[in-house]
What does this fold into?
Amino acid sequence: MRRKRVELSAKVLVTFAALLTSIIVFGIFYFLISDGVRVFGRVSPKDFLFSARWYPTYEDAEFGILALLAGTLSVTGLTLVIAIPLGFVCAIFLAEFSGRKSHDAIKYIFELMAGIPSVVLGSFGLKYVSRWLMEHFPLHVWTGLNVMNASLMLSILAMPYFVTLVEDALRAVPRDQKEASLALGANMTGTIFRILLPQARSGILNAIILGTNRVIGETMVVLMVAGGATMVPSTIFDPVRPLTSAIAGEMGEVELGSTHYFALFMIGVVLLAISTVFTLIAMKLKRSKGK
Amino acid sequence: MKIDAIVKITFAVVSYTLIGLIVALIGFLIVNGLDNIDLEFLTAFPRNSMTGGGIWPALVGTVYFVAVALLFSIPVGILAAVYLSEYSKDTAFKRLILTANNILAGIPSVVFGLFGLSLFSITFGFGTSVLAGGLTLGIMSLPYIISNTHESLTAVPYSYREASLALGANRAETSFRIVLPASFSRILTGVIIAIGRIIGETAPVLFTGAAFYITRNPTGPFEPAMALPTHIFVLSAVYPDNVTPKLEGSISLLLIIVVVLFLLVAIRRRKETKKLEV
It folds into this structure.
């Protein structure tokens, strides 16, 4: 009898633990949305999303997130432009050209690279990269804290994701496809670009989606080095204030239950929606590849 | 044939240059701050608006935050992974859990901070405290623990389960006495990875548990604590340049901890693959 009881309670326990994960996800949605929607008591959804005027501390406060959104998009876009090509080159090198020993060593460095705390990169960008930018691009740069600086630091965080996931995607292509191509007289370069990369495209797309999600959600780097100016940037050397940095930078000073407080939660809802959609697309891609 | 050689060399040069730059960056940040780490730095409270003393309370606080996080995420994560690998069939419920886990893994860290603030600090009334910050980090580390443990459990050969069930053990006994102990080493590796991920996290504790400056260490879970990553943030962004030696020391120390953790993971993984090959 006792064995039966233990057996049953174990089953209940593990099922509940698993269920708790979903409860937490629902809880996150619930708590963010229930606080976030209260901003619409004072600001219309249209103004919130499509106004570029974010002046939360003015007497006549305004809460439009368009400029913050533009900040996030510009930093994310430039990061992808830097990190994707470099990540591809490293991934192809790892998958096709490197020996086993050097492969393992390089792989370790990339894992370590992904593990560098973002606050450390933020500090490095703040103290060193900003000065370097000011000295080397004096005609364009009026502040060392800008889109470029943030994107350089974010590339360091994003690249390992691209490298690891793209390499996995390349390795998942059946060996005989590569061998058939080589046997037919194609060279290695042609085989990589005409056979392997097209075959691995869903895995590659998956890598880009997951990496982009990571970049959009990164907080400390953009808080410290993106410049913090609420403006729609016109060059890559303009300072910006991405969504995540607005939350992290302003939450500490905001009055609980104020419109500003609710507005920051609504920005959280926007970020939550973006990351959920990206995750679901990535899962769908992976499943369709599995079939 | 010539083009292959050119492509190979170009790709190798780009890869090794990048690797070299990263190693140089990490090496520079570690060595640069090494001079500022001494016994006083490790064991004293900050003094004279952070220009003197050390980072003792930030170290203590980081240990507290990580400990609370793991106390939550290890048991819940392992149990959930046991469910996924040993109990569940391919049902809609299992897919729901896997989807929830993936969504959780993709949520930005600052959003966890908002959730922790709203649920733990305000609704539960924990305020800005070790408990609220630690639980927020715990929820953030949960998907890492679940995914890693799930993978470790599925790697245990099916014959172990069959042998156990054939001897008359029930599913609970098989899962907890046979499968779980057999994958203990891999699960531990996963826990180290999770520690490496959360030890440098700043945004989730920024408004749930971190104090910028305290004069005595917290004596209970309901008090705020300093943390190494938030300390680095504060020294970089809030204080003037005369705190730079302390900042460089803190960065160096945090990076040393992270490098050691990742080295540990690499060594353990190597041993595990060797064991499989024998």
